[in-house]
Amino acid sequence: MRALHLLLCLVPLMPHLALCYPDYVPQSACDWLAPWHEPYTDPAEGPAPYKLRIYHSQAPAGIPVPVSVVGSQPFLGFMVQAHDAGSGQAVGSWQVTPHIPATTMTCSNPDNTVTHNSRVSKQLVPLAWLPPKGYNGTVFFKGTVVATYTTYWTDIASAPFRVVSV
Ligand SMILES: *[C@@H]1O[C@H](CO)[C@@H](O)[C@H](O)[C@H]1NC(C)=O
């Protein structure tokens, strides 16, 4: 039930946001996303038709890193964090631009999570991640992509991305 509720919230219906968005979903969705534990409703099996695409394998700290959610099929919703390879913690913050159907969420730290803000069908959502100040390490971008109300893939991971402190 909890996961089903989350999925419905992850794909908010614009006029019915009050219960689920932005106040309620973030916290429960964070719990679901951050430890990457098994949701109560099983995610889809097999390779996800979605990717978290990065365009470089490393960059100096202090520069926003482009990351895109891309699909070979359309999707409705997504939730993405950058996980430090050592600790597994969500690090850094996300930046969104007005015309992109994305919004930031605060899980353990301000804006350390990015999610959709519209249930319009999409196939490519460009995002930008800013490493924490002084960060020197490797992250994996990790996320969940919601294809339809009942089909979603979790634990989608990018290739490793190295941030070199300057
Ligand atoms: C960053 O990390 C790498 C690999 O662990 C290390 O070799 C390097 O000295 C570190 N740089 C700084 C400025 O801490």
From TrEMBL:
InterPro entries: Ferric-chelate_Red/DefProt, Reeler_dom, Reeler_sf. The keyword Signal applies. Pfam families: Reeler. Residues 1-20 form the signal peptide. It comes from the Eukaryota. The keyword Amino-acid biosynthesis does not apply. GO terms for cellular component: membrane. Keywords: Signal. Residues 15-166 form the Reelin domain. PANTHER family: CYTOCHROME B561/FERRIC REDUCTASE TRANSMEMBRANE (PTHR45828), DEFENSE PROTEIN L(2)34FC (PTHR45828:SF42). This is Reelin domain-containing protein. The lineage of its organism: Eukaryota, Metazoa, Ecdysozoa, Arthropoda, Crustacea.
